Amino acid sequence: MNYKKQQILAELHQLARASIQGTVNSPTITEMAFKLFVTLAVLGVANAVLLPTLVKKVELEAPAEYQFSYSVHDEHTGDIKSQQEERHGDDVKGQYTLIDADGHRRVVDYTADEHNGFNAVVRREPLTGHKLVKTVVPVAKVAVPVAHYVAPTLKLAVPVAKYAVPVTKVVAPAHVATVSFSAPSLAYHY
Length: 190
Prior knowledge:
By secondary structure, the chain is an alpha+beta fold. Helix content is 24%, strand content 26%. It is flat, with a radius of gyration of 46 Å.
């Protein structure tokens, strides 16, 4: 051991002996550590219990408020639809309409709130006088004459080379080991 370590150990030994005999008025390291621990524990409890009640929480977000609507009316493509919606806090109410391909108007009234969730009521109304836009691709009618032509066949004798491939025989063992695996169950029981 070097000299400084020996000197520190000697001083600690003297402090311990003096504290046992009661001749030293200064607190020992153990007493100081205990006091520090108790102080930090009291401060932690006070922080956890008293601070949340003393600090006022201010909500910076205002409740959502909006209102919008739009509509599209394109006779050329048949795209006719509209929507309107409004929100006050957590309550949303709205309606949208569109023209289905079969010529009916679909009207959907919907509401959403915290208590009931999302609810929609769908109605279908037949339209009178609505022009259905039908997109029809013209079909080209082309008559192709049928040819009764038979291609001439070519008769040619080609020599065939004969080649024998050696065959290797492999004997399979009489006993084949089977391996099975079972994975642990992934079901959780609560």
